[in-house]
Amino acid sequence: MVVDDEPYLADLVATALRYEGFETAIAGTGAAAVALARAFDPDLIVLDVMLPDVLGTEVCRRIRSTGSQAPVVFLTARDATEDKISGLTVGGDDYVTKPFSLEELIARIRAVLRRTRRTDPGGGRLTFADLVVDEDAHEVRRDGRRVDLTPTEFKLLRFLALNAGRVVSKRQILDHVWEYDFGGNDGIVQTYVSYLRRKVDAFDPPLIHTVPRVGYVLRLPRED
User: Boundaries of each OmpR/PhoB-type domain copy (predicted)?
Assistant: First the structure.
């Protein structure tokens, strides 16, 4: 959820997030944000501090009082230390100062989501077809048989499993698996996908597929 009283900026941030695969909703005031948080139940909130009706810090406090634990990334032109402390004290998880680059904001959002993501009710298991990714045991099985992966291969497969059925780009994979401060090029993604295929797709049917000029997707083979 993006909360900012500047329509152009809110739309710009929301569009960038949609491009990265996020479902987004926009609010332009604090009151609208509190109501929308109840209806939309966001996984994360990008929240401007200087709203026309109430400060973003108060909006955060009100949303928290409803029981929402969605992480909050404050967005503001104010960069004084006391403002940052105030934002983090009321339950904010990060603080981005205007002006900012969309790349930085998205990277910070992904970092916050990685830090705050809770184990799912299924005991930390992601399943697709005969593939099981056990996050708690850090173990992968296909057709009931264990597949030994390196830590990076495990993170890559986990990301594909989280997005099963949806094509993810090399850049999205870099952001999630190697994180936003990775200094290399996206050729490493192709290399690690090939490593992963040798292990995971040694079974039938193959699950990891390339979508030319777009990215990769975890899905069952299509019948032509």
Answer: 123-220
151-162 helix and 187-200 helix, angle to the nearest 10 degrees: 90
Q: How confident is the model at residue 118 (pLDDT cuts 50, 70, 90)?
A: very low
Q: Which residues contact 94 (CB under 8 A, 6 or more apart)?
A: 71, 72, 73, 74, 108, 111, 112
φ, ψ (nearest 5 deg) of residue 188:
-65, -30
Q: pTM surpassing 0.70? A: no
Burial of 80 (C-beta count, 10 Å sphere; 0-12/13-18/19+): exposed
Say how far apart CA 126 and CA 119 lie, in whole Å.
11
Q: How many CB atoms lie within 10 A of CB 156?
A: 24
State how far the Cα of 32 lies from the Cα of 36, in Å rounded to an integer: 6
Do 104 and 96 form a contact (C-beta atoms < 8 A)? Answer: yes
SS3 call for 48: strand
pLDDT tens-digit series, residues 91-103: 677 888 888 888 8
26 — phi, psi (to 5°)? -125, 140
Q: Which of 61, 50, 69 is nearest to 5 (CA)?
A: 50
Q: How confident is the model at residue 164 (pLDDT cuts 50, 70, 90)?
A: confident
pLDDT grade for 182, boundaries at 50, 70 and 90: low
Among the listed residues 154, 152, 128, the one whose alpha carbon sits nearest the alpha carbon of residue 142: 128
- Token pair listed for 53: 């009706």
Cβ atoms 79, 97 nearer than 8 A: yes
